Amino acid sequence: MKNDPDKLLISLLSTLVNEWGFEEVYEKLSKIESRTLDRSNKNRNVSGEKNFQNRKPARKLLPKDYIDKIQATDQQKNILYRIADGFEKKEFLTSLSDIQHFLGKFGVYSENLKHRPDSFRIIANVLKDMPEDKLRSVLEELPLYGLTQLGPLSDAIREANKSIRPLQVNNNLSDEHTKDK
Question: 11-31: string of b/e by CB count within 10 Å (b at 16+)?
Fold first, then answer.
């Protein structure tokens, strides 16, 4: 297997040399090499090891960054930016349970949400397809999605329903079996 990449490289280089000549290919490879060395030397220390200290850490996307990526009318974008601003200021969906409750209203159930700031990606995905009038109603209802503490109660009810439903199904099945006898 090791020879296969070598054969491919030799074949490609031979084709280039046949087309443009050895000197031209060699000159272009030298230019590529010098550009690559210039770039890589900026990220290396004196001993030649990569220097990761000079690299900036990746910036987490803010809610407004997600809105920037959405294609929408100016009116829709304006509403979306106001919603994103409310989210950033924690005036809207202040807890993970509030977020799950909000998403549940639109048929999106995501139990693997771990951090509030990371969840706006999912919220933006739900909001992006909404017509302007629906976005306006969400914007008007922002206070209702904000500082309420009904999210934990809603979660508790949902979990209780999950545990009760299998019991109800099993009881109904056992009732049918006793009626037949």
Answer: eeeeeeeeeeeeeebeeeeee
- Single-letter amino acid, residue 126: V
Q: Which residues pair with 44 in a beta bridge?
A: 50
Burial 110-138 (b: 16+ CB within 10 A, else e): eeeeeeeeebbebbbeebbebeeeebeeb
Is residue 43 pLDDT above 80, yes or no? no
Residue ranges of the domains in the chain?
3-54, 63-167
Residues 6+ apart with CB under 8 A from 104: 154, 158
Poorest-pLDDT segment among 23-27, 140-144, 155-159: 155-159
Q: Which range (80-84, 131-135, 141-145) has the least confidence?
A: 141-145
pTM tops 0.70, yes or no: no
